[in-house]
Records
---
Amino acid sequence: MKAPRVTLDQWRTLQAVVDEGGFAQAAEVLHRSQSSVSYGVARLQEQLGMPLLRIDGRKAVLTEEGSVLLRRSRQLVKQARQLEELAHQLEQGWEAEVRLVVDAAYPTARLIRALSAFMPQSRGCRVRLREEVLSGVEQVFLEGGADLAITGATLQGYLGSELNEVEFIAVAHPQHALHQLQRELGFEDLESQLQVVIRDSGSVQPRDVGWLGAEQRWTVGSLATAASFVSRGLGFAWLPRHLIERELQEASLQPLRLGAGGLRRPRFNLYASKEKPLGPATRILIELIKTYDGAALDAPFAAPLPPSSEEF
């Protein structure tokens, strides 16, 4: 690949001449002699094979071609500066990427708020988010595929940060046979009905969660698919309240009148990998996840102010 003939310093020099209104002013800002500034711009024009500036009175004015190239050069210089800043941050221990694996049952709204607040503080750190179901979260995390994990399981040998509960409700379409009984239900009433369950995404030690006493079960790949099936009259299921709030309000889903077990409230935990020390970006994201985990899902969003540099 052919190396560029023009340097970033030459583009910076041209920008200074235009921004400051002349060669003498640019020389003062750049702490150079006026002759070196003039030579740098002349050399730039020679290498590009076109005039970038013309002198109008005592002021240097961009040509049409110069105006186009100057706009692009500003982006180039800015990107180079950001690259240098990122290199400095990496040298100081700032991560290039944080990998997060989350159980699909965890409220997305809480996660979006935490990540929205993280973005202006991230200093270019990327976030790789992965959703799994049940033991799939543990498998990805324990195999080293994530730095942070949000799961309803207890991981042996790890000290997790306790998050809030997620409420699961046993629901069915209003016209479902279970609602037509118009009485309190027992598990014996459920045995002859179709139960929709969500497949565990783990492959090492997949597990079943909740009541699975129905003779007929359909297994689907996501909570959203399960909610869609059940809201159209196909069976019953335990589903997270935050996922089906609209269906409950519109009465396309109704809670089953179970005497016991109609509600489940598993508590979720946030775990950090022990394979490497926590970097500053990971620590910031952990605190934001814990902060927004406690916020009401329908509360107005306001990102917190970024921490001062002294906190790093």
---
Amino acid sequence: MRYALGALRRRPGRAAATSLGIGLATALVVVLLALSAGIQSSATRLAAASGVDLLATSANTTITSGTFPPVTGAHRLPSAMRSADPNVAAASPWLVTALTFGNQSLFAAANSSAVPSGWAPAGSGAVGWIPSENAGIETPSSVVGPGFTATGDPYYGNGDYRGPATDSVVLDSGLAAILHAHPGSIVWASPASVASSSGLRDWYLAAVPFRVVGISGPFWLIPSALLGFFYLSELQALVGGSAVGSDYASLVLIHLADPTNPGSDQSTLAAHFPGLTLFTLGNILGAVQSIVDLYRTFGTLIGIIGLTVATLFTTTVLLMSVDDRSREIALLRAVGFSRLRVGGLVAEEGIYLSLIGLGVGLGAGGAAGYALNRFLQSLLPGLPAGFSFVSFDPTVIASGLVEVLLIGLLASALPALRAMGLSIAEELRAA
């Protein structure tokens, strides 16, 4: 140990540069591993807490398709699914779409033909659901205002679109802040966008006014910080017209009374509803895992390149160290040190360089992981508290330790062989 540490102290600048190189390569690998571990663990934890045990979409739809063809007959599905499978505690049809929202200030400006520069309607996501069918499913709660109070879906209460409309909307806090809206405010919504300020008046004439009945917290299940929530039938009427054929949703979230065997409920519902594709929580997490694995593979390739460069750099430095101490090594051999012992001293030097690099790498990786996590969270402010893109679990730390030890051993192999093969006579004669 003393000899190896003395060799490092002899060339402190070179040793520091080598350890820094190993540390940066280690930090890169640690961050990539922590990123995949964080996404997977957070997704698993949140999915388990969501209350969603099965997800139904239209037939021949994949989880990763990104688009959801209409699920027809949305309003009859909750009772039909409960009848088909008594284990279904709740079946909530959701219509997910995009809308454009305008507030009262912009309405007044549009009607006075004096729209200030930079004022425009806000593009946002929208969710239509039947609030009473969400029992057991995690949804955002109203933090200001009463929220939805009517039971069922009044506008579709008679099996058509001739019931009383509530004209109510709940805005999440992000959209409410942009619209400067609060409970009691009127906002206008339309699936159409506005090309220029000259078209604002006509846009408001075609848009539908809604009264804000609540402001909710962010909703992590849909990755957007800007969302408006409607009764299902009223959003259907807004985007598809008030006709029986418009009774569609994007998907159906299903909560089971007993979720221990969701595969059985999946089979039962699939047999009764051939027009639907049903996914278990395991299927959904498997799709998440596939995406994570893809990025992990890409990250692994980058990590391998970094580790290879670090290993070659360390090998070069150790070879230089052996050349610098060739006569000293010959003296050690002359006084009785075996070839194996000399090679072990060189390997020991490589291990110490790697361990110093490990300390640098874990520190740099931790700081970089924290910064990366904050940056990614800022891109998706709708995520819940506790969601982390980065997780430094024991597996990640252990992987970093194994990698730096391998760098030390591999990098010292060639220099150790060179030290073991030095000719005692030639080195002493050169002295």
---
Amino acid sequence: MSTFKERMKSVRFKLFFTMCIVITIIVLCLILANNVVLETFYLYSKTNTVRQVYHRINLYYEHNTTNNIETELKRIAFNNNFDIFIKTEDDVYIFSTDKDFFSTLNKISSIESKNQEKDNIIYQDSNIKIRRIDDEGNSISYLLLAGKLNNGYSLYIRIPVVPIEESVSISNRALILIGGITILISAFIASFVSRKFTEPILQLNDIANKMARLDFSKKYRITDTEDEINELGKSINTMSDKLEKVIKQLRENNVELEKDIEEKSKIDDMRKQFISDVSHELKTPIALIQGYAEGLIENVNTDEESRKFYAEVILDESNKMDRLVKQLLELMKLEYGKREFHNENIDIVELTHEVIRKCNVMLEENHIEVEFNAKNPIYVYADEFYIEQVVRNYFTNAIKHCEEVDGQKKIEIKIEENQKVRLSMFNTGKNIAEEDLKRIWGRFYKADSSRNREDGGTGIGLALVKAIMNNYQNHYGVTNKENGVEFYFELDRVFLIKP
């Protein structure tokens, strides 16, 4: 039902319905005019015909234009379906196309003398009189012209009149039939024409609906017809292109704005986190510096060696604070994407050997054996500075937690090559508690509460590792082994082609 109502509202249905209504009105007007005007027009036409014949016959006798008037009169009567009767002033019969016409004229004379009111005079002047005569006895009607010719002869012309009601009825039926056929033909034409008109309109409507949903993919098909719809289609295509550009620009601006807002939010979060971390971690060193500084001022210890010890503690704590602040700033930049990486092809084997060499003093002090047998170069694509920090943090962390197990105190480093390069670092010692395996990657988290400040650790080394590896989107982690702990990370491998 709703579909039918929608079709009734369409332009195609309205155009078809309008054409049918117009044709029906025209047919009804023709039928009405046929009923009202046809009889009058019919009598007017017949009257003009007999008048013209009268004048022609008058000219024949007046100018004697033909030698055989009788033949000409018969031809006129035959061509026009007339009866003609002519007599002289002495009532002498000279011509008649119907032998019974004379007796008819006698009846007409008696009608004129008895009841002229029954005659319908249609036309009359000084020479002729035309009237309609209804012969009820014979059920016929005719027009009768009675006139005087210029030569004194009397002329009578009789023309039968078809019953006009029958003609009107026949004409009306013909009009109804023609009107019905016309409506059917018009329905087909209206459907074809309306489709031609409505198809581009529907296409434009579909494009407009898509534009309302910010879909500018569909365009109007421009034709060679230079009409209003084609011009409208061009305008809509132009508007669609401009809107698409404007909305695209707005989206780009919106993305930039969102980035700016996100960037501002990150900076704000980074600032808050930095202040929180610094304020938390600097409490102890500041308190120590303050305490030892007050001791120096108040001369708690008068001997030179004690004052030197106080000064060394203050200097050591200051250096730790400086190192902590720098590491915090570096960590913040890594976590919030503010650090730019200068990636290149680096030899991870050579880099690891260099880290071991720099930490050789710590290894000797702790009597730790290192096993790392890789010699051939293995290249990865990364920033050498940050990857060195990852390896150093792993290595120093292994040194601090390395303990003797079954007569061995060692650190074992392995590099495996597959689609990625995986570096793993194992140290003998205690396992990490299961609940601490994920916590150790957080800043300032120390799984071993017994560690003291002499170790020099800040608690953000593994947090730096996490931030660096997250920037490379590569795997990293820690696993408890039978006699110790193993840390690992992966990097993108580079296959160099030898010349």
---
Amino acid sequence: MINRDIFEDLFVLELANNHWGDVNRGLRIIREFGTVARYNDVRAAIKLQFRDVDTFIHKDFFNRNDIRYIKKTLDTRLSREDMATLVEAIRRANCVRVATPFDEKSVELCVELGIEIIKVASSDVTDWPLLEKIARTRKPVIVSTGGTSLNDIDNMVLFFEHRNIPLAINHCVSLYPSEDADLQLNQIDFLKNRYPGHVIGLSTHEYHDWHSSVLIAYAKGARTFERHVDIKTDDKLFSPYCSTPEQVAEWFQAFNKAREMCGAPGSEKAPSTQKETDYLITLVRGVYAKRDLPAGHILTADDYYLAIPLQKGQLSCRELLNDQVLAAECKQDAPLMVEMVESLYNRDETLRKRLYERGL
């Protein structure tokens, strides 16, 4: 079986726009979000984006400022040494090191820098040369599915399954930012049913509310979560699909509340708490005699009635059976005690004592 634990309850915080190409800004982001993760007792990863810019962009397009993606990639590029500095800062912050490589050379950089999980962007679900390079690292993979056809997702999942690569599949809507009505959170149910052997997650970009989606997603079974993060400064534009440290703190708190409220995994029966058991006992009816009943009498439905409260050592509606033989007499309207009925509980002191521990 593939080890799923690496993805369970993992929050992936992506440094948006590669921290605008400023390594010091990146270090501050890592420090601030690492602190928020520790204070909220969550397992967090910080994700970088790797591009070998000299080969990722065709040389004839290096000066094309009219193509937004090319301009942003050039404006935010960092050296290998800067990337290594950031990866080491993530390690020191006790966060999981994650990166999205957008080309084959960047996959090699993931290996060189000790990246622990590789993220595949929605745009690269069908980039087979890139996926093959990623698979050869044997590292766990998280993939987002925004705007991807079902056939392409199926093929990608089979690709990693055949290579026995741990895989988490994130439901994602590739709108930046996303309105609440765009989120399609029921797709988490779909992915869980279609790919039961994999962790299902949520990569999300809404900007109105940092509580609702994680509450719903966790309850539906999502177990890894991703957001873009950034800090607000006077010198850089803050993208509306990013989350500040304060907003991510709200996100983490909502997750902890969701986990508290959902309790045990849906695959198993949650144990009853003593507080819950004690409360329910107060609602259980006890057995009372309708009339004087002599010892040796065979109990029938005409001999008793049920009422609250259940008294300590009293026979309750849970244990009541017709045709039970009375071992002792019971007066009208008196509680029918467990020792008054011939049974194992009448003969065994230890068992009888347990019944005397309940009731009023």
